Amino acid sequence: MNQEFPLMRKATAVWLIENTSLTFSQIANFCGLHELEIQGIADGDVANGVIGQSPIFSGQLTVEEIKRCEQDKKSNLKINRSSSISTETSGKKSAKYTPIARRQDKPDGITFIIKYYPELTNNQIKKLIGTTDTMIDSIKNRTHWNMKNIKPRDIVLLGLCSQSQLNEAINIAKSLKEKSEKYEAEILEDLNKKSNKSSPKKENTEN
């Protein structure tokens, strides 16, 4: 049996990226798009100007189904066959979905981390807010297409991660930095010792 895909697949993908914490793989599978294309949409390189269309409003997804897959990253979204594609004819309003993360907030969040927590690695940033190396590097290098409108905003207040997740990442980064500094100090001390041993002693030239 062929897999069913939503109407307006790119517009649906844009909405899911902007309003959920689903993985690129989950969105790609549901929309019938390549995962790299989803990554391009998240980075702002693909589907620029495409307005997101809610699959909840159209009846193709339920709030419960999205939440189920947000909690289990290995699960795939299943299109809602029992609902009508158009909710206008039924006269019923679809359930309101509260966004966990918005795509336009992520550049601000990355800028916040770079400014206040420069010790965090790209991998830590990606894990915290679900972004890509391309996005992080474009902000670090100030080559992002929307750089003039990006400003640092607290990632916890934006809902991109919890305070405990941020604290954990900071503690890990500090621990790694301390270990690295200790290791470098030990190497420098060892080199100095070897240098002192190899230095020739001055001979007494006095008669």
- Contiguous helical run count: 8
Structural classification: mainly alpha
Number of domains: 2
Mean pLDDT: 80
Question: Which residues sit in consecutive blocks of at least 5 with pLDDT less than 50?
Answer: 84-96
Number of strands: 0
Gyration radius from CA atoms, angstroms: 25 Å
**What is the N-to-C succession of helices and strands?**
HHHHHHHH
How would you sum up the global shape? Answer: elongated
Tell me the span between the first and last alpha carbons.
103 Å
Helical content band = 40-55%
Major sheet: size, sense and barrel closure? none
Strand content: under 5%
What kind of oligomer do you see? Answer: single chain
What does this structure look like?
This protein is mainly α and 207 residues long. It has two domains: 100 residues, no CATH class; 94 residues, no CATH class. 48% of the residues lie in helices and 0% in strands. It has eight helices and no strands. Helix 1 runs antiparallel to helix 2, helix 2 packs across helix 3 and helix 5 packs across helix 7. The protein is elongated, with a radius of gyration of 25 Å. It starts with 8 loop residues before the first helix and ends in a 9-residue tail after the last helix. About 6% of the residues have low confidence.
